[in-house]
Amino acid sequence: MTSSHVGTPGAGSADQDTERAAVTVIGLGSMGRALAGAFLAAGHPTTVWNRTLGKADELVAGGAAAAPDAAAAISASRLVVVCVVDSNAVHAVLEPVRESLPGRVLVNLTSTTPEQARATAAWAAEHRIEYLHGAIMVPTPMIGDADALVLYSGSHQAFDQYEASLTAIAGDGTYLGGDAGLASVYDVGMLDIFFTGMTGFLHAAALVGADGISASTFLPYAQRIGELVQQTMVELAADIDKGSYPGDQDNLEMEQAALEHIVEASAARGIATALPRLVQTAVSDAIVRGHGRDGFSSVIEVLRARSRAS
Ligand SMILES: NC(=O)c1ccc[n+]([C@@H]2O[C@H](COP(=O)([O-])OP(=O)(O)OC[C@H]3O[C@@H](n4cnc5c(N)ncnc54)[C@H](OP(=O)(O)O)[C@@H]3O)[C@@H](O)[C@H]2O)c1
């Protein structure tokens, strides 16, 4: 199960098809250090490199090899993981050393847009690099956990070959398909819910806080609504996929009144109204389009139309 630490890629390389393949981690920010630490903890011979010196010290003390430059880091392992701040940084690091990469498997765990992921996949194909894109869906303290989620897309062969190794960083590594942009599509979709959901809670905390109710007092009630949103997503998803928006349990005309209450109560307390107004406007636009007696899921028609217009 062990493998050579510094080796050459390609057929016969000792690090293939083993659970403890040699791995190189490029980028030692908080996430890169967590990834390298998890590979080390799982027994992978781990080589690290970072643009700025000094960030490898703790990892080296834990058994990692610090490469003097990016090219040496890449030469150390067939499996090369890159996790830097953004897509521009990925190319700033890899472009000058691209001749070291053919025959390697590049796993890019940097958060990007789907378009950037696809562009990097095209760049990798041009340079005969096997490319797997990954979207890390957990914070650094969860790296290495059995239920940590990382989404992958791109080279199926690369995923199959290194799936066992990648469980060192996330027990729940999910392969989505051959289009390298897919992991980022799911990433932005999930983060859309995360950020708008958190902002919804912050707005509500400001609203009730204006009447002297602390966020902690409000929390259990907020969580009840969070559970309801989670359950409601099941029906919304079914409606969206069918393209029909039954309004027998709820309808937009009724919901418009509730939204007006939120806007009015916010304005009366000097709380920002932009967020509830955004939803209110989407609902009124849907009503203008004839969805007044349809369910809330019909608002997707307005959101889709806006995305096409912008
Ligand atoms: N932290 C999290 O909880 C988390 C969760 C999910 C996803 N992610 C994703 O993981 C990626 C890394 O995040 P992080 O938290 O590790 O960020 P970070 O702590 O800010 O580290 C950024 C890393 O990028 C490197 N870098 C920046 N510009 C560079 C350039 N032009 N050339 C070479 N290297 C460059 C930095 O090198 P220097 O040290 O030399 O500046 C550092 O290694 C991001 O895409 C982030 O969205 C992070």
Tell me what the structure shows.
The protein is elongated, with a radius of gyration of 24 Å. α9 packs antiparallel against α10 (274-291) and α10 (274-291) packs across α11. β2 (46-49), α2 and β3 (65-66) form a beta-alpha-beta unit. Strands 3-2-1-4-5-6-7-8 form an 8-stranded mixed β-sheet, with helices on both faces. 37% of the residues are buried. It contains 11 helices and 8 strands. Residues 1-18 have low confidence and may be disordered. It has 310 residues and is α/β, with parallel strands linked by helices. Helices cover 51% and strands 11% of the residues. Residues 27-32, 50-52, 55, 83-86, 89, 92-93, 110-111, 136, 139-140 line the site of NADP nicotinamide-adenine-dinucleotide phosphate.
Summary?
With 310 residues, this protein is α/β, with parallel strands linked by helices. The protein is 51% helix and 11% strand. Helix 5 links the parallel strand 5 and strand 6.
Please provide the ordered H/E string of secondary-structure elements.
Answer: EHEHEHEHEHEEHEHHHHH
Question: What ligands can be seen in this structure?
Answer: NADP nicotinamide-adenine-dinucleotide phosphate
Low-confidence stretches: 1-18
Radius of gyration in whole Å, from Cα? 24 Å
Average pLDDT, all residues: 93
Strand count, sense and barrel status of the largest sheet are: 8 strands, mixed
SS-based structural class?
alpha/beta
**Oligomeric status of the shown chains?**
single chain
Fraction of helical residues: 40-55%
Distance between the termini: 53 Å
Shape: elongated
Please count the beta strands (DSSP E, at least 2 residues each): 8
User: With helices defined by DSSP (H or I, 4 residues minimum), what is the helix count?
Assistant: 11
Neighbour order of strands in the largest sheet: 3-2-1-4-5-6-7-8
- How big a fraction of the residues is strand? 5-15%
